Amino acid sequence: MRQISASQIWTACTAKAAAGNDGEDLGAEYTLDLLARFQLSTAEMFKVFDYCKTKGITPLCTPWDAASLDALERYGMPAYKVASADLTNHELLEKLAKTGKPLLCSTGMSSESEIKDAIALFKRKGAQFVLLHCNSTYPAPFKDVNLRYLHRLKELVTDGFVGYSGHERGISVAISAVSLGARVIEKHFTLDRNMEGNDHRVSLLPAEFAQMVQGIRETEQALGTADIRKVTQGEMMNREVLAKSLVASKAIKTGERIDADVISSRSPGKGLPPYKKHELVGKVANRDIAEGDFFYPSDLNFRRGESQSL
Questions:
Q1: Do 206 and 240 have their domain in common?
Q2: 154: confidence class by pLDDT, cuts 50, 70, 90
Q3: Which of 7, 54, 126, 279 is the most buried (most CB within 10 A)?
Q4: Neighbours of 193 (CB within 10 A)
Q5: Are 105 and 82 in contact (CB under 8 A)?
Q6: What's the pLDDT tens digit per position in 29-54?
Q7: pLDDT of amino acid 274
Q8: In this structure, are residues 119 and 112 in contact, taking their beta carbons and an 8 Å threshold?
Q9: Is there a domain that residue 292 lies in?
Q10: 28 and 93 co-located in one domain
C-alpha cells in the first residue's frame, strides 16, 4: 500500500544492477515499474473500500509495513490479510496483533518451524488468526499444492481455523480444500487474464469465481457430519420403491412351517428386508399368507416349529 515515486524505483533498480544481480534486477525492475504505473493512492484505495461497502462486500487489505498499517487503522479496516512474505516479519506481526483485528495469514514460502514461530507469537499476543495453506508459485503446479498439509496445519493451530490461499489455475483445488477443512478461501480475481502483471494469468474471471463459490457452498452442504449413518427422507422414499422384501413364493396356511423354498425376494421394500430371511425360516405362520404376499415383522413372533394352537 505504500506509495513509491519514480525516482525511488530508478534508484532501487540501478542499485541492484550495480550489484551485478541481473536476474534479480529484472524481476525487481518489472515489479516496481508495475507499481509506479498501476498502484492506487491511499485516497483512491479508500474510495474502493467505500464502494465495496455499498455493494455489501467487506473490504480487506494487506499492509506491507507499519505506515500502511497506520493508514488502514485510521480508515477502520475490520481485519487484515498477512502476505506470505511477512509471516517471518515478526515486528510487523506484533503490530498487527496489537490491533486486535482478525488476521488471515498466508504460509507460502515458510518452513514448518517458521509457521510454528508465527503461531507462538500470535498466541502470546492473544491474536485472532487463521492460517492459510499456500504455495507461492505463480501459477502453482498441482503436484506442489499438497492439500493434505491442511490436516497438519490444523494440528499446529490446535484450537483455530485454517484456510487455503491458491495460486494454481482453475477452481477444483480451492473447492477440494473445503472438503479437507479449509474455512477461508483466497483466490485472485481479474477481469482479463491478458492484462499486464504476474497475477492475472492465475486469477479467476467473474463467471469462474461465481462457479467456485457455488461449488464451495455445495461442498459445505455435502460434507454433513461424522455422526452415525442415518437413512434420509429421500432415501426412505426410494427404499420403499427400489429395495427388496421377503415375499411368499406360494400360499402358506396358518400353522404351517415357513421353509426357505417358499420365500423369495422382490421389490418394493414394504416388508421384511432380505437379510431377515434366516430369522424367518423355521417359523410357523400365524396367518394365512397368499402367494406373492409380503412377510412382515409380526411373522417373526412365533418360535421355530411352534404352532398357533400352542
A1: no
A2: very high
A3: 279
A4: 14
A5: yes
A6: 888 888 888 889 999 999 999 999 99
A7: 97
A8: no
A9: yes
A10: no
- Report d(CA 39, CA 45) in Å as an integer: 9
Instruction: Please say whether the beta carbons of 70 and 92 come within 8 A.
Output: no
For residue 256, the enclosing domain spans 233-300
Helices and strands of the chain, counted as H and E runs: 12, 7
Does some domain include residue 257? yes
Number of domains in the chain: 3
Residue 48 lies in a domain: no
Q: Are 96 and 103 in contact (CB under 8 A)?
A: yes
Q: Quick check: is 58 in a domain? A: no
Nearest Cα to 272, choosing from 292, 293, 297, 238? Answer: 297
- Give pTM, 2 decimals: 0.79
Burial class (CB in 10 A: 0-12, 13-18, 19+), 158: exposed
Q: Please write the tens of the pLDDT for every residue from 231-253.
A: 999 999 998 899 999 999 999 99
Which pLDDT value is given to residue 302? Answer: 66
**DSSP structure string for 250-297:** S-B-TT-B--GGGEEEESS--S--GGGHHHHTTPBPSS-B-TTPBP-G
How far CA 48 is from CA of 37, 38, 58, 76, in Å, comes to 18, 14, 11, 14
